[in-house]
């Protein structure tokens, strides 16, 4: 899928230059510093995954720390979900690519591994000690389910990610 | 509203207007599954765009979606109704605030099922 109307599906950006502009606009937003300090301290106290991941989560948390961030009455991002997402990232084997971080309308955080069309895996946390997951591995293979959040990454995740990346 | 407008045909296309950059990956030029996850009310708001011009499509998004929420319209994702029906979801006309407004309904309670469906809708 690309910019414009292509067959069955199209992701249409309003204008190409608006994308660049909008990215910069987000950096101009006033962020609740007390929240960002609190969150980063809690994250850093729990784990030591890459600063890049900490910064991305902190940035996203600051951007969507209020309700209705998507314009469709979404929940504010859940601080406990940020902690869980951070812990989950730290548990990942370094041999796997880092996921894209996606915010969900219920305030949850999704870790998304998108390989190509039809090949994607998502693990989602909401700060409730449960990981919901779903994945597509081509036209005839899919999974979904839930796992309790523990101190180790669920085996099914590793299997799914290894399958996704042909490892 | 006429019966013809109330009935949503499987051949129609609906559009999801996107107002937040978290709902698409511009670098990869793709919509993310989160754009199709249902709101608190358990529905996904869309607009029927079959048979209207590109200008009209964007105009509806700006006037009836983004401006009403004091948001900036960033993108839109178009999807065939048939694709939605294949996931055992329904698309019903809800002609407020605009005659072409509709909702995607019948989402499962289980979040992992909702994730899988949203991934499929975004992956088309």
Share of helical residues of chain B: 25-40%
Total of DSSP H or I helical runs spanning 4+ residues of chain A: 5
Rg of chain B, Å, rounded: 14 Å
- What percent of the residues of chain A sit in helical stretches (DSSP H or I)? 25-40%
Side-by-side strand order of the widest sheet of chain A: 2-3-4-5-6
Separation, N- and C-terminal Cα atoms of chain A: 27 Å
- Which band does the percent of strand residues of chain B land in? 15-25%
Percentage beta strand of chain A: 15-25%
Q: What is the tally of beta strands of chain A?
A: 6
SSE class of chain A: alpha+beta
Structural class of chain B: alpha+beta
- What strand order characterises the main sheet of chain B? 5-1-4-7-6
The backbone outline of chain A, from C-alpha atoms, is globular
Can you give the mean pLDDT of chain A? 74
Shape of chain B: globular
Would you tell me the overall average pLDDT of chain B? 93
Instruction: List the secondary-structure elements of chain B in sequence, H or E.
Output: HEEEEHEHEEH
Number of helices of chain B: 4
Sheet with most strands of chain B: 5 strands, antiparallel
Q: What does the radius of gyration of chain A come to? A: 17 Å
């Amino acid at each position: 899928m690309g910019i414009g109307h292509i067959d069955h599906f199209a992701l249409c950006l309003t204008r190409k230059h608006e994308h660049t502009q909008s990215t910069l606009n987000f950096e101009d937003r006033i962020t609740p510093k007390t929240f960002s300090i609190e969150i980063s301290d809690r994250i850093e106290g729990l784990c030591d995954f890459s600063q890049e991941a900490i910064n991305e989560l902190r940035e996203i948390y600051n951007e969507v720390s209020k309700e209705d961030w998507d314009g469709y009455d979404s929940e504010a991002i859940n601080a406990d979900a940020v902690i869980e997402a951070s812990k989950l990232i730290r548990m990942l084997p370094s041999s796997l690519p880092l996921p894209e971080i996606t915010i969900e309308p219920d305030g949850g955080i999704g870790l998304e591994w998108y390989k190509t069309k039809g090949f994607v895996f998502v693990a989602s946390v909401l700060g409730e000690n449960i990981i919901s997951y779903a994945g597509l591995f081509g036209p005839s293979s899919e999974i979904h389910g839930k796992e309790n959040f523990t101190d180790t990454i669920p085996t099914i995740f590793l299997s799914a990610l290894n399958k996704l990346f042909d490892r | 509203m006429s019966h013809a407008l109330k009935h949503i045909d499987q051949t129609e296309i609906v559009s999801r207007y996107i107002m937040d950059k978290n709902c698409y990956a511009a670098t990869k030029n793709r919509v993310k599954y989160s754009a199709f996850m249902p709101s608190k009310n358990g529905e996904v708001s869309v607009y029927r765009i079959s048979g209207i011009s590109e200008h009209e499509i964007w105009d509806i998004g700006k006037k009836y979606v983004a401006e009403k929420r004091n948001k900036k319209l960033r993108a839109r994702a178009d999807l065939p109704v048939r694709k939605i029906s294949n996931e055992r979801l329904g698309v019903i006309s809800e002609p407020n605030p605009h005659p072409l407004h509709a909702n995607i309904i019948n989402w499962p309670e289980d979040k992992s099922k909702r994730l899988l469906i949203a991934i499929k809708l975004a992956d088309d």
